[in-house]
Amino acid sequence: MGNFGKTLGFLLVFGLFVLVAPVVAQTETKARTPIAATAPIFEVSAGYAYVSLNMPSASRVGLNGADANIVVNITERWGATLDSSYSRTGNVLSTGHGGSVLNLLAGPVFYVADRGNARIFTHALFGASRVDSAVPTSPTTFLGGQVTRLGYALGAGVEYDLSRRFAFRGSADYLRTTFVDSADKLQGQNNLRAVVGVVFKLGTR
Predict the structure, then answer these.
(1) CB 156 within 8 A of CB 18
(2) Is the whole model's pTM more than 0.85, yes or no?
(3) Which of 110, 143, 165, 205 has the most CB atoms around its CB within 10 Å?
(4) What are the helix (H) ranges across the chain?
């Protein structure tokens, strides 16, 4: 995974610890309704997605786009997520070639802790990722194209209820994709994805 992947993984774990520790350390002093009684069965969300794309040349490219997903809560702690995101840029590494990342991922979500209107979660999503990009091969030429391979996102986030039907959600992921290097050989990419969005809740338990 390389130094970037290890560093990013450490930061994600550390960030989650910082978020979870205060919640776990505090004891609820008043009775409230258990999660199982109030958790929505379905959650539909849409929002903004930013991807810091790792290029084989060791440079990074920032991509902006959108994310949409559906969460089905199965138990008070576990759910299933179907997630799709598309982010792009108009110029990759000054080649004049546009770049984009399209992800279609699915997997489990686990609610680590909750307090009041906030819930902290982690997820592990797997599926297909398509990278459309370019790699310079000389000062005047580049190699461009699309690569579709297995992709996955491992991360955590926070969901905060704004009302009975709406919530705000933010998350950060280590995103694994694949592209080619300047010799046209496949290379794994260690990327960072950040997503913020609005959640609409359909039904409650």
Answers:
(1) no
(2) no
(3) 143
(4) 2-25, 35-38
